[in-house]
Amino acid sequence: MGLLDLFKSNKKIESLDLSWLQVDMHSHLIPGIDDGAKTLEESINLVQRLRGYGLKKLITTPHIMTEFYKNTPETITRGLLKLQHELQKREIDIEIEAAAEYYLDEVFMEKVERGDQLLTFGDHYILLETGFINKPQMLLDTLFKLEMKGLKPILAHPERYLYLHQDNNLLESLIDRGVAFQINLLSLTGYYSKPVKSLAEKLVDRDAVKFMGTDCHNTHYLDALEKLPANKYYSKIQSLSLSNPEL
């Protein structure tokens, strides 16, 4: 073993601490209703691990997507109550609520225009995602209409949208109008790709990030997330003025 190998073997690996974040507002923990946790036991294990990182509260956000995940406030609430009951039964002390991650399409816009019940959290925040490749033509109009309804849209993981990588003017426009961005902590580890990591870092450097989330779907996400302390942005994100603790 060389000196460099000896140094590496003795180097202390910092454990993941998310106590500074306090609240994770993006995850998929309700079992069996989207591409997140599949079973109640898996949900419990994920919640326990998230609690072990120092988080005090979880706001889990199942997908609502017209073609794939036809969840409703009722199906999500039923799933949440089942999960809450099991956590209480096992004496796992962590607060957990549910909202949704809405896919921005025509059906969602119809819900907004009809005044349908939408799952929000905190101070009337609503989490939105779009397709990853092409800019939705209704993006700006949807954000405006939500705001007119008294809602506060949060754009989930903007660093992952190819159209924002390709259209800096649109990105700057969203930043200038104060759209709330939520980036995934995993993006900073390079989990998705180097370009995604670069844009996440750019948004952090621009102080354009209002929320952060794990976007936890399964154990693989958390295994990868535990590498975050080795990243140079780990300490930087802890100094951001995030709104997570207020939720």
Automatic annotation (TrEMBL):
UniProt protein name: protein-tyrosine-phosphatase
Annotated organism of origin? Echinicola jeungdonensis
The organism sits in which domain of life?
Bacteria
Q: According to its UniProt record, which protein family does this protein belong to?
A: Belongs to the metallo-dependent hydrolases superfamily. CpsB/CapC family.
Q: Which InterPro entries match?
A: Caps_polysacc_synth_CpsB/CapC, Pol/histidinol_Pase-like
Q: Which reaction does it catalyse?
A: O-phospho-L-tyrosyl-[protein] + H2O = L-tyrosyl-[protein] + phosphate
Print the keywords alphabetically.
Hydrolase
Q: Which Gene3D superfamilies match?
A: Metal-dependent hydrolases (3.20.20.140)
Instruction: Name the EC number(s).
Output: 3.1.3.48
Keyword Ribonucleoprotein (UniProt): no
Q: SUPFAM superfamilies attached here?
A: PHP domain-like
